[in-house]
Amino acid sequence: LSRRFISRDATNGSSPIAFAFDIDGVLIRGKQGLPAAKRALSMLDRANKLGLKIPYILLTNGGGVSEKAKAEDLTSIIGHEISPSRVILAHTVLKNAAAKYADQPVLVLGGKNDDVRKVAESYGFKHVYTSLDILAWNPATWPFYELNEKERQTAKIVDFSQIPLRAAFVFHDPRHWSLDIQILCDIILSGGIVGGPYTHTRGTNPIELVFCNPDLLWKSNFPQTRLGQGAFRDAFQAVFKSLTGTTYPYVQLGKPSTATYDYAKQVLLQQLQGKRADDPESTPVVYMVGDNPESDIAGANRAGWKSVLVRTGVYDPANGPPAHTPTREVEDVEDAVRWAIEDGL
Ligand code: G3P
Ligand code: MG
């Protein structure tokens, strides 16, 4: 590996190739690391210890915690050191949205307890509320769920009848779909006040609605794929359409969105110490290794990256060809790295 790289332009400190690794179904399944993951990442880190500077990132539609917490979790599950600077979660791109809403009350959905509030505040959002805060303020908001002790302890109780929520960000997969759908409908139809009169008028969309992960399905450690945040989005839109006759406009971030892949390109280039995205000479060929044709392969192909589809996650060849054609199909992430190194030189 080192001889092949040094014989190419690695001597000027920049590598001809870079990697973006999806997480669920490629590196891990639930809380279980895939054996090929440790071998693949060890191979890259050994090359980088030789000074070969192969940039790589972990690019997931997962999240719900800080990049630091996710890196620590992955380090433990995979058994290989993962730096937080390499981790891009579904909501990491929202760091760029915080300034617009810094002084406005916003609703954040998904994850456990107030984990996502803490993440949003770390991005610069200053007035962040969760659906559990609203339920703690008025249990009649949704009479079919009672907060558990931890949720009660971490709730921030304010008078929501006085707080017009200006935007709703679905950071991660909601745990209480019915409560969250009820509250989204309440604030959209009332213009932001929970419990306020439904004055929503056609054509005005007072609440910006942002979803961070479009995945209908994802691969955990269950034999069949699991419903993801895209399923929650579709459930909300179905209920909203039954209520109003139309769906509600929203912003979709996460893979395969251009916003997420553009953000990922910038992070990869930062690893090349100041190389510019518009300098074709310095930008490496990026290999995206993923398990979901809809998010990983579609997004990589659109980004002009090479896409490598593994058979350890959502994609199952027994169900027919993938909806988006990868540059290469391989068994697992180790095969993907080996093929990319051969291909990239
Ligand atoms: O919630 C995470 C899931 O939607 C997929 O994650 O890592 O396969 O993009 P990932
Ligand atoms: Mg995946």
H/E series: HEEEHEHEHEHEHHEHEEEHEHEHEEH
> What structural class do helix, strand and pairing data support?
alpha/beta
Placed side by side, the strands forming the largest sheet appear as 5-4-1-13-14-15
Number of helices: 12
Compounds present?
Answer: SN-glycerol-3-phosphate, magnesium ion
Total number of beta strands: 15
3D structure, described in words:
This protein has 345 residues and is of the alpha/beta class. It is built from 12 helices and 15 strands. The strands form 4 sheets. A 6-stranded parallel sheet has the order 5-4-1-13-14-15, with helices on both faces. Strands 7-6-8-9-12 form a 5-stranded parallel sheet, sandwiched between helices. Strand 2 (28-29) and strand 3 (32-33) form a beta hairpin. Helix 2 (35-49) packs parallel to helix 12 and helix 8 (177-190) packs across helix 9 (229-244). The termini are close together. The relative contact order is 0.15. The chain binds SN-glycerol-3-phosphate and magnesium ion. The site of magnesium ion has 10 residues, from loops.
Q: TL;DR of this structure?
A:
The chain has 345 residues and is of the alpha/beta class. Helices cover 36% and strands 15% of the residues.
List keywords for this structure.
alpha/beta, HAD_sf, HAD-like domain-containing protein, five-stranded parallel sheet, binds magnesium ion, 345 residues, 12 helices, elongated, HAD-like_sf
